[in-house]
Amino acid sequence: MHQTNPIYASYPWYSHPAERYPVTDNPQDVKLMQLSAKNFLVPVQELHQLLHHIANNPQFAKDLKTAASLSQEDKVKSMIQSTGIQTPIKISFSPEGITVMFQPANTAACFAIRLSLCW
After folding, report:
1. pLDDT tens figures, 41-52
2. Please, are residues 71 and 98 in contact by the beta-carbon 8 Å criterion?
């Protein structure tokens, strides 16, 4: 019987990689792991760009927070993408902060990056 980890149950958009893809029982088969690692490199660079932009551009950070406080999801996403992000993302925000979920463009890759920042 499959049980869902209660930590992830509260995040319906998050799928644990072991639940998304079959795990090989061959310890020599590292193809999926290598594919995932290779596809992880670009989003990591994009994440760095986004953080650098927020950290070093007070007006951008203020505009991002303001748009989120007005529930302007399209504007928030557009602002985030304007920093050079091309990886598919999902965003959510609340009075406490913002969460950006980076997902692989290549659906065969198995990873996710979740960035959460408090306001």
Report:
1. 999 999 999 999
2. no
Output Rg (C-alpha) for the chain, integer angstroms. Answer: 16
Is the CA virtual torsion 117, 96, 113, 87 positive or negative? negative
Going through 1-119 in order, the beta strands assigned E by DSSP cover 89-94, 97-102, 113-118
Does pLDDT of 19 surpass 70? no
In angstroms, the CA 67 to CA 118 distance is 15
* Cα end-to-end span (Å), the chain: 40
Pairing of strands 89-94, 113-118: unpaired
SS3 helix, strand, coil % of the chain, rounded to 5? 45, 15, 40
